[in-house]
Amino acid sequence: MLCLESFMKSLPGKGVDSFLLMREKERSAYDRLMRYILHPQAPCQTLEVLGGKRGRNKKFDGDKVICLEPGPGLGEDCIVYSFGIANEWSFDESIHEMFGCRVFSFDPSMGIGNHRHNSGIMFYNTGIGEFNGKITVSGETWNMRTFDSILRQLGHWNRTIDVLKLDIEGAEYLVLEDILGKGLLNHVNHLCMEIHLPDNPYWIRVLRLLRRIEEEAGLRHFSTRNNTQMPPMRVPGFYSRYEQHFFEMAWYRH
């Protein structure tokens, strides 16, 4: 059996020094990413927690937060886009009941068609993606639409979206890149997003993408909370480092 040193020397153009340097860069990039995630810089004097229910470990899950002050708040004609329901309606119902917002809910995985959930919530059997088309997941066909095509379909192209919620189980990076690339996050006042750190050490790419939310769209990171339903996981690229990898993050426009 080759030892690590022999194995690395056997790789073209790669030696022990370059391998160790790569590992050190990975660790440094991971630490920078975690500092950004865990230390929001924007203040929030009035934070509103919306929705949520107790999960299997008796801790809350599904709740999202918005900042009313100094954030933009929610007006009388507020519009909410909620992607990722999984039959858990508490956020959608709560923000409609408390603020009177019109809520547009989307999820292709629930096996139900388009319908009005209640007087203020319209459900669409559609998922958000970086393309328009269909995909097959576990033998089921899902209809996927881009954010801009959904805005046009619903007649909201020239409207501000007061709250955009993304809880789409790992697809958030591709979707966020598509939304940012088209400049559409500039018309969103609150972004509430569950992030899942990737299985591969692409820490620099993730950090750059999250920073673009502030640098390009002008939103401010004000909240990060652990997803308490998931246990700590091994950090890819590290031998024995276990940390939380699922987070609820939130930004507001100021």
From TrEMBL:
Superkingdom of origin organism: Eukaryota
Q: Where is the Methyltransferase domain?
A: 38-196
Q: List, alphabetically, the Pfam families matched.
A: Methyltransf_22
PANTHER family membership: METHYLTRANSFERASE-LIKE PROTEIN 24 (PTHR32026), METHYLTRANSFERASE-LIKE PROTEIN 24-RELATED (PTHR32026:SF10)
The protein in question is named: Methyltranfer_dom domain-containing protein
Lineage at the top is:
Eukaryota, Metazoa, Ecdysozoa, Arthropoda, Chelicerata
